[in-house]
Specification:
With 255 residues, this protein is of the alpha/beta class. Helices cover 31% and strands 28% of the residues. The protein has 2 domains: 3-193 and 244-253, Vaccinia Virus protein VP39 (Rossmann fold, 3-Layer(aba) Sandwich); 196-236, no CATH class. Helix 1 (28-39) runs parallel beside helix 2. The chain starts with a strand and ends with a strand. The chain binds S-adenosylmethionine.
Length: 255
């Protein structure tokens, strides 16, 4: 069992989590989101949702905000659900975090259905670090999460969403628009770090971006070591090792 301690949660104290086989590791994106939760504490209150909780890290951090009553942590992977529940207990957040097994927002059992029903139209916030998708422009999962979350959020709710810089500021700003969300600001960002094309998932993601650019979609915006900005097609053609920055953005659900 590997235990990872995330020290920087934007002032909410360290969170120690056992890694979830199905929910993946604690990544630089997870850490950026954990910092964003602490930094936005003044905007997070009442009942909240952590979509795709993985280890439970973001839900545990959010549950420490005094104005937060409860966090519903949603996860589909059964192993990750069990790991997140152990992590919640490990961090003394048992009374404040309910880990629910659900596919997107569709509960997998009766207890989950009861918990999710109780949150409908009342959640004051959602935090989400969704997976990349192989469809659309790579943000398909994020759109599905934003669309389905509308049923649970109350008007004015805050949404913290992880989207990396290479998607481009214009695409990120437009992301929530069709779904009734308003982009407010980028609250946290990492330094420029390699978008490692040795990783199979990132190589596949690059293929998705190239296809989107060829369809006439907005260009992606990677950086090169010299600071130059290049699109996905230039990266695929060998322009140089691409860099990106992991980012957390704040949206508001207009309702
Ligand atoms: C990128 S990880 C983020 C984990 C964690 N929130 C963090 O920031 O470290 C995305 C999570 O979404 C979960 N997930 C993927 N598809 C899902 C679905 N259909 N319904 C619920 N959760 C899902 C994955 O199992 C994974 O734990």
């Amino acid at each position: 069992m590997t235990l990872v301690t995330v020290d920087d949660t934007g002032g909410l104290g360290p969170v120690a989590v056992e890694l979830a086989a199905g929910g993946g590791p604690v990544t630089p994106a997870s850490r950026v989101m954990a910092r964003a939760v602490g930094r936005c504490r003044a905007m997070l209150s009442g009942v909240g949702i952590d979509w795709g909780t993985g280890t439970g890290l973001l839900a545990i951090a959010a549950s420490r905000i005094p104005a937060v009553e409860r966090v519903v942590a949603i996860e589909f992977d059964q192993t990750a659900v069990e790991t997140a529940r152990r992590n919640v207990e490990r961090n003394g957040a048992g009374g404040a975090v309910a880990v629910v097994r659900a596919d997107l927002f569709t509960p997998c059992d009766e207890e989950g259905a009861r918990v999710l029903e109780g949150v409908e139209a009342t959640a004051g916030f959602m935090v989400a670090n969704p997976p990349a998708s192989d469809d659309q422009d790579g943000l398909g999962w994020r759109r599905r999460v934003l669309t389905e979350a509308r049923r649970f959020l109350r008007p004015g709710a805050t949404v913290l969403l992880q989207v990396s810089a290479h998607y481009g500021a214009d695409r990120i700003r437009a992301l929530g628009g069709a779904e009734g969300y308003r982009f407010v600001e980028t609250v946290e960002r990492s330094s420029w770090v390699p978008f490692d094309l040795g990783r199979e998932d990132l190589r596949r993601a690059l293929d998705v971006y190239v296809a989107e650019e060829r369809r006439g979609g907005r260009p992606y915006r990677f950086r090169l070591a010299g600071g130059e900005e290049v699109d996905a097609r230039s990266v695929a053609a060998g322009a140089g090792p691409p860099l990106t920055s992991w980012q957390a953005h704040r949206f508001e659900w207009i309702g």
